[in-house]
Amino acid sequence: MPRAAGTKDDRLQVRLDAASKSVLQRAASYRHKTVSQFVLATAMEEAEKVIRESEVVTLSSPDWTLFYEALTNPPAPNTALRKAFATYQKTNG
């Protein structure tokens, strides 16, 4: 029988001391969630934050202007770039 979309079949086990568990239970109760719901929601928020910080580049207005200018009006290839491209073509083309 096929599983329904969104079915939760994977588990993640965490070992923790009694004091940590008590803090998580207390925090979860303030959010009206189970400890599992609280830990998953909090971990997902932090995971998404870490991913954004690692994968998204944010530029200031002056930096964006420089970046855009380099993309729209790139400088002519110099000798080193032409040589590197020739080497690339020999090995890959």
Order of helices and strands: HHHH
Mean pLDDT: 93
Residue runs with pLDDT of under 50 for 5 or more positions? none
SS-derived structural category: mainly alpha
Q: How much strand?
A: under 5%
Task: Tell me about the largest β-sheet.
Answer: none
The backbone outline, from C-alpha atoms, is elongated
Q: How would you describe this protein?
A:
The chain is mainly α and 93 residues long. The chain has 2 domains: 45 residues; 36 residues, no CATH class. It has 4 helices and no strands. The chain is elongated and about 65 Å long.
Could you give the topology of this structure?
Blueprint: H1 18-30, H2 35-55, H3 61-72, H4 79-92
List keywords for this structure.
mainly alpha; 93 residues
Quick overview:
The protein has 93 residues and is mainly alpha-helical.
